[in-house]
What we know:
The protein is of the alpha+beta class.
Amino acid sequence: MTRLILLTILLIVIARLFWRLMDAVIAGARGEQRPGRRGGTPVKLVRDPVCGTYVPPRAALSVTSGGSTHYFCSEECREKFGGQ
């Protein structure tokens, strides 16, 4: 009797996982974004003008010149930009 109960629970868990997977695959195929499973909000990335790397503005080094701000992935890229 115990085996039957455990087997039933196992089958229910497997079925639930399978349907969650299929739901995610279908949502992905439609291009839908599923709400907040991973938490967090999307961050707009900025492009380093020297090497082309995309970096989040809060983590990037920056220089403001001519009324516009330029973002860099490293000190080396910032120095190369200043030397141009």
